[in-house]
Amino acid sequence: MNSNSIAEAAKPYTDYDMIRNHTELPDFPNFRTQLLYTFLHKSSTFIEQSELFALVVSLAQLGLDTHDLVSVTNERKEKAEARSRQLKVLAGDYFSSRFYHLLAQAGQVEMTRQMATAICEVNRLKMNLYTRMRQWKMTADDYMQYSVSIKTQLYLSFSRALEGMKPNSWDDMLNGYTRCEVLLDELRRIERDRDFRSGWAFWHLLQIGTKEERRQLQNEDTDPGKLRALLHKYNVKATLFQMLESQFKTLSDKIRQFDSEKLVAELYQIGEPFLRAISAPRALEEV
Q1: Alpha-carbon gap, residue 37 to 30, rounded angstroms
Q2: pLDDT tens per residue, range 76-111
């Protein structure tokens, strides 16, 4: 099995018509999962568990990401909306239960403990993030750091297991790829009016905008056209592309420091969607 096959291995646990037909699911955490599999497969100690560990961490991440899609309020009473909300809760719980079950079957007690600890840390970080957002105490840099930390916690459970490789290589690669992933997600987000307010661009504009523009941003009833005009005025998309290009260059410099040509090639293959987005911005939706 190669790193691209982990998503296929997860399908028996995620592809259910009841879920797919009545609610949306988050994207599979491909970048981080492929990266984890690649590093575990290079470790003589964990090569036999590389597929299992990559699978279980992806299911645990899917569980957390699915719960994030549950609306905060239950104001919409339509039958379809209520069913969608309920299925997100149940699907998130189910994905999480599969991760526990698979590790228990394999007798991986210590890894179960580490993953459970990481999940607690993810929830703590999310609570801090939401609290700062509600109190308007968030900056764009804060948002980026929280986003990366939240996405990497489960995968950092393997830092000790991979510490025998090049010093700090796992943590550095995980952080670098995840920053690129967040930036790519934020570029897509600004094209969608419905979740613009929960992203990097919103907090960036809130920092650099005029007093009147900040007032507009804080008003939830502001016309989407005005918000889009602010994005254009401050060249937010161009700024995000520049950030992605800079981050990928930093990541590339670190990748080239590995001695194994095969590992370098595999790491570049994982990061190819980032390079494709930088090279052809118009093809962003295809990445």
Answers
A1: 10
A2: 556 777 778 888 888 889 898 999 999 999 999 999
pLDDT at 45 over 90: no
Question: What tokens does 263 get?
Answer: 């590992």
pLDDT, residue 71, reads: 74
Backbone angles phi, psi at 270, to 5 degrees: -60, -40
pTM over 0.85: yes
What residue type is assigned to position 260 of the chain?
S
The two three-digit tokens of residue 188, written as one number: 């897509």
Round the CA-based radius of gyration of the chain to a whole number and report it: 20
Q: Which residue has the tokens 């190819």?
A: 272
What are the C-alpha distances in Å from 72 to residues 18, 64, 68, 75, 130? 22, 15, 9, 9, 11
- For residue 201, pLDDT beyond 90: yes
Whole-angstrom distance, CA of residue 255 vs CA of residue 176: 10
The total number of residues shown for the chain amounts to 287
Q: Model confidence over 48-79: pLDDT tens digits?
A: 999 999 999 999 999 999 999 887 655 555 67
Single-letter amino acid code for the residue at 198: S
pLDDT at position 247 over 70: yes
User: Cβ neighbours of residue 61 under 8 Å, at least 6 residues apart?
Assistant: 29, 32, 33, 154
Give residue 88's pLDDT. Answer: 87
Q: DSSP assignment of the chain, as one string?
A: --GGGHHHHHHHHH--HHHHHHS--PPP-HHHHHHHHHHHHT-TTTGGGHHHHHHHHHHHHHHHHHHHTS-S------HHHHHHHHHHHHHHHHHHHHHHHHHHHTT-HHHHHHHHHHHHHHHHHHHHHHHHHHTT---HHHHHHHHHHHHHTTGGGGTTTTTTSSTTHHHHHHHHHHHHHHHHHHHHHTT-GGGGGGSHHHHHHHHHS-HHHHHHHH-TT--HHHHHHHHHHTTHHHHHHHHHHHHHHHHHHHHTT-S-HHHHHHHHHHTHHHHHHHH-GGGGGG-
